[in-house]
Amino acid sequence: MRRPRRLRGCAGCGRGTGRRGLAAAEAAEAARSRPRARGAPAAARAARLRARCAAMARPPGPSRGVWAPLFWLLLAGPAACAASPGDDGAGPGGRGPRGRVRGDAGADEAVRRHDSSYGTFAGEFYDLRYLSEEGYPFPTAPPVDPFAKIKVDDCGKTKGCFRYGKPGCNAETCDYFLSYRIIGADVEFELSADTDGWVAVGFSSDRKMGGDDVMACVHDDNGRVRIQHFYNVGQWAKEIQRNPARDEEGVYENNRVTCRFKRPVNVPRDETIVDLHLSWYYLFAWGPAIQGSITRHDIDSPPTSERVVSIYKYEDIFMPSAAYQTFSSPFCLLLIVALTFYLLMGTP
C-alpha cells in the first residue's frame, strides 16, 4: 500500500509539516471561506460607547475620589441647595429668604428657600443684595457722640479757668474762655470764644507776641473745627506741621467756636513746642477766619495772664473785658467818689 506524502511548508502561509501544520492550514482555509459581516467594526465601537456611558451613569464608589460628590452636586441642581428644616427660616414660624414671616409648611411651599443654585453662600449673598434692592437699609455706623458742654462748676477745684468778658459769665457767654487740667501724662484744654473764625491760646516767656507756641481751634468753610499748631514770628502766626494735639473735638454753635484737645506735658526739646510742666504766660486771642485760615485777632491788645501759669495749680481767674474795665479800675472809682463828694458839698 502507498504511504501518503508528507506536506512541507511554512507556518506563515498556513502550510506545514505534521499534524500541527495540517490543523493550522485547515483553520486558515475555513477562515478564508467564511463570509465577512459588513459593519462589524462600527458595531464594536457602538458597543464600547454604550459600555462607557453605562459606567459613567453608575453611582460612584469610594474609589472615585473627592470630585465625584461635587459632580453629583452640580447634576442635582437647585434641589441640593434647599434649606433643611433646621436652617434659619426653613421651619414653620421662621423667615423666608426675603425676610417675610413664614407660616405653616404647606402654606409656604411657594417661597423659595434659596434663589441661587451655587450653594448656601451664593444664596445668602443673593438675599443680601435683594434686601438692598427692596429698600431695607444695611446697618450703619453708630452716630458720633455730641460735644460735651464745658462745666464751669469745676473751675478752681478740678481744673483751672480763665474768663474774659462780662462778670459772672460762663463758657457759653464769656467773650473768651479757657480751662486746663492734668489727665495722666497729658493736659486737657477747653477753649471757647464769641467768634465764627478761630480761638487760640499761646504759651510765652513774656507777655508779648513773638516766639510763642500757639494752639488754635479753627472753624473752616465746611463747618468743621480743626486743631492747629502755630508759632508766632513777630506779629504773624506760622503753621507748624508737627501738631502735639490729640483726642481732638470741636463744634461751631450759636456763633461760638468751642473745642477740646489734649497735649503731652513733656515733649522732646523743640523751638516751636514748649514743655508745659514749666510755667508760662498765657496769651488769649480770637478772631475771624477766611477759608479756614486765621486772620488778625479782633482786639488790638489781646488779654494775657498777669503772671506765669502752672498747670499744677487750679485757679478760677476772671478778667473783665474793655466794656467793664472802666468802672472796675481803682482810679475810676476814686474819680467817681471825688465827683460825688464835690456835688454833695456844693460850691462856696
UniProtKB/TrEMBL annotation:
Q: What's a single GO BP term from this record?
A: regulation of glutamate receptor signaling pathway
Spell out where the chain crosses the membrane.
322-345
Q: Name one Pfam family in it.
A: DOMON
> Positions of the region Disordered?
85-109
Top-level taxon of the source organism: Eukaryota
Q: Which UniProt keywords apply?
A: Membrane, Transmembrane, Transmembrane helix
Determine if Transmembrane is one of this entry's keywords.
yes
Cross-referenced CDD domains? DOMON_SDR_2_like
Domain DOMON, first and last residues per copy: 174-289
Name used for this protein in its record: Ferric chelate reductase 1 like
Task: Give the originating organism.
Answer: Myotis myotis (Greater mouse-eared bat)
